[in-house]
Amino acid sequence: MLLQLALADLAVCWILWILVFVVRHLRRSGGEAVVTAPEARKGIILQGLAFALVWTYTGPVIFERPAILLILSMLLGPLSVALAWFAVRHLGKQWRVQAGLNADHELVQTGPYRFLRHPIYASILGMLLATSLIWISWPMLVLALIFYFAGTEIRVRAEDRLLEGRFKDSFTAYRSRVPAYIPILR
Asked: Is the pLDDT of residue 172 over 80?
């Protein structure tokens, strides 16, 4: 019973998590990026590989998950969805899949951006973990996390370079006091 509830929770979370980006894309009012970081595409590919591992390789018997893992998944999924919605809302017209800056780009430091420079990546990590807690074995989770962190670090560094180039000292100060995407880690 708990497994079915956890799977249903995960399915709803994935629908809502994807929906935030679909809605943002449909409402997109920002112009084309003036400055981009094409190297961030490599990060997207590595993050995609992490999810491919999570979704295509199930553990030996997913039905024998300890209750604590299922409960953690059911807590982590909704928190990740809420973080994504909140982050995209505060990012507004500046949200994009590909790293880039608009001509009128602003340095957002409100909402979740007060606590994390890249809260959407934190929400992606949360969804990866929520899925993994139900779905895959520990060795496969470690491999997926390696791909995820490698891809995310590429993206974070590319985006930070763009922001530092545009906002100079204000971004440097922001980066020095706000962690990238994992609270406590700078």
From this structure: yes
Q: C-alpha angle 77/79/82, rounded to 5°?
A: 110
Q: 165: Cβ–Cβ under 8 A, 6 or more apart, which residues?
A: 35
User: Cα 74 to chain center, whole Å?
Assistant: 17
Q: Which helix (H) or strand (E) holds 81?
A: helix 67-91
Segment 94-146, tens digit of pLDDT: 777 777 788 888 999 999 999 999 999 999 999 999 999 988 888 889 999 99
Alpha carbons 104 and 108: distance in angstroms, whole number: 12
List CB contacts of 70: < 8 A, sequence separation 6 or more: 2, 3, 5, 6, 133, 134
CB–CB of 77/127 below 8 Å?
A: yes
Nearest residue to 14 via CA among 90, 80, 95, 86: 80
Task: Identify the structural domains of the chain with CATH numbers, from first to last.
Answer: 2-177 (1.20.120.1630)
The reported pTM is 0.91
- Residue entry with tokens 């017209």: 93
Burial degree of 82 (CB within 10 A; 0-12, 13-18, 19+): middle
Q: Label residue 63 by pLDDT band (50, 70, 90).
A: low
Cα–Cα dist 117/81, whole Å:
17
